Amino acid sequence: MSTVLGIETSCDETGVALVRDGELLADVTATSMDEYARFGGIIPEIASRAHLESMVPTLNAALDKADVDLAEVDAIAVTAGPGLIGSLTVGVSAAKALAYSIGKPLYGVNHIMGHVCVDELVDGRFPEHFIGLVVSGGHSSILNVTNIATDVTELGGTLDDAAGEAFDKVGRLLGLPYPGGPHIDRLSQVGNREAIRFPRGLTVGRDKHDHPYDFSFSGLKTAVARYIEGLTDAGKDLPKEDIAASFSEAVNDVLTSKALNACEAFGCDTLVIGGGFSANSRLRELAAQRAAERGIKVRIPPMRYCTDNGAMIAALGWELVSNGVEPSPMDITVDTNMSLDTIHF
Ligand code: KG4
Ligand code: ZN
């Protein structure tokens, strides 16, 4: 039996969770998101201070909920990157102090792999080989995974904006509150997806050939901005729902087709989707529909595990422990741009 404590502080959520042999015992999250609506974006300094204040209460709440004593913890996993430097530093410092005080191993892990790994807590162990699609505010990547603890290759990623970031920027253009992603999702459900044909980046000709698994959403964002400008200059009302639905369709069309193409090209019958953006209703619908047409199984965790949380980090820590992976040295630092070649330090 091994009990892993997971700590996540890469952005605005302070998450602490406990996983014992693949079973989630507790998952507690505090967030400072409410403080950013008036700024239209996260303020890193506020986020770091909020982590400092929330760390100990969140840890205690998770231990209480799991009914686990700190001394019973066998390993501590913490997000070492990518993320905001101050936010990451609070989590890694706390994890080091805890590991040192109880004399247990420390694992500094990659946040992005955590977004994939959390699905195991819900849908059971991964198959031997699968494709991962991680979509969040900061990342849109396609991963080829044979072992989530030891063998992950990035097939492609975004060359400019991540999917969530593009949604947040278009949200701003439409005058929606920050973060725009969930608001665009809501509007798009009542809009016409075919009203406006927005561009699908890197999907045709040479671009497609050279970048089969890469994404580019900045041209799309500019096309939306031009469309809005055109209507505004002509003094016309904005069909917000149709813009949201057509824009959302362009993003989700590209995400799902490239991820499913990767499944076929690499002979995988399973696609695992994770990250904050995987809460998107059209992504979930389109992925399920297109995967079924191609005989591919899609695994997407429930909404509460899509946004940042401690469970994803505890799940990845548990995979590292069960695969007998060497712990991280106690002097690890954080890596704001941690590459997808690194599963843990
Ligand atoms: O993974 P996450 O919580 O944080 C990062 O690591 O970035 O992802 C947050 C991102 C934000 O850009 C947010 O707007 C987006 O995910 N998001 C959504 C939805 N829910 C969250 N985007 C589209 N539709 C949603 N339902
Ligand atoms: Zn995330």
Question: Would you mind describing this structure in some detail?
Answer:
The protein is α/β, with parallel strands linked by helices. It has eleven helices and ten strands. The protein has helices at about 45-65, 85-100, 110-115, 120-125, 165-175, 180-190, 205-210, 220-235, 240-265, 280-295, 310-320; strands at about 5-10, 15-20, 25-30, 75-80, 105-110, 130-135, 140-145, 150-155, 270-275, 295-300. A five-stranded mixed sheet has the order 3-2-1-4-5, sandwiched between helices. The chain has a five-stranded mixed sheet with strand order 8-7-6-9-10, sandwiched between helices. A hairpin with a 3-residue loop joins strand 7 and strand 8 (about 150-155). Helix 1 runs parallel beside helix 2 and helix 3 packs across helix 11 (about 310-320). Zinc ion binds near residues 111, 136, 275 and 308.
